[in-house]
Amino acid sequence: MTTLEFSYSLDRLTRSLKPFALRLTKDRDDANDLIQDTVLKAFTNRDKFSDGTNLKAWLFTIMKNTFITNYQKMLRRATFVDTTDNQHYLNSGKTKVENQAYGDFALEDIQHSIGHLDPSFRTPFMMHFKGYKYEEIAQHLDIPIGTVKNRIHVARKKLKENLSIYKYD
């Protein structure tokens, strides 16, 4: 493939890169930068492209690898070296690491709160949680479908009140 043909094909396929770039970066300007980097790398490395292979797939691979490389660079920039005698590497920024204990406490509280629901609310709620449809729950419990919906709603409301400590702002 000549340079002119390659350049024409590259220009034609550039539009199809935009949705993928937006999905990766979640930002229009960053997506445009990523597309520009991808096209530049593809053009400078056109000698590595084999005729008869899928140019679009090659461009998507370049874009994905460029995004990963840029993301890793960004993470490295957010890391600084502690110059004390211990030489620890610390991540800067507002990150927090949670251990499994928090999740275990939450799960215990959820199970406890569900266990303390009145059985008339707990049973339809748990059946719905397990994937049963409203109609199936109504038939199984021999109650009207409106009652099933109401009991599930009330159970959710009570659980939300009891577990309000876990509410995210």
Walk me through what this model shows.
The structure is a single chain. This protein is mainly α. It has two domains: 3-81, RNA polymerase sigma factor, region 2, helix turn helix motif (Rna Polymerase Sigma Factor, Chain: A); 100-166, Winged helix-like DNA-binding domain superfamily/Winged helix DNA-binding domain (Arc Repressor Mutant, subunit A). 69% of the residues lie in helices and 4% in strands. It is built from seven helices and two strands, in the order H-H-H-E-E-H-H-H-H. It has helices at 3-25, 28-44, 55-77, 100-115, 119-129, 134-141, 145-162, and strands at residues 79-81, 89-91. It has a two-stranded antiparallel ribbon. A hairpin with a 7-residue loop joins strand 1 and strand 2 (89-91). It is elongated, with a radius of gyration of 28 Å. The relative contact order is 0.07.
Write the layout of secondary structure elements.
Elements: H1 3-25, H2 28-44, H3 55-77, E1 79-81, E2 89-91, H4 100-115, H5 119-129, H6 134-141, H7 145-162
Antiparallel strand pairs: 1-2
Keywords: Sigma factor, Transcription, Transcription regulation
Family: Belongs to the sigma-70 factor family. ECF subfamily.
Protein name: RNA polymerase sigma factor
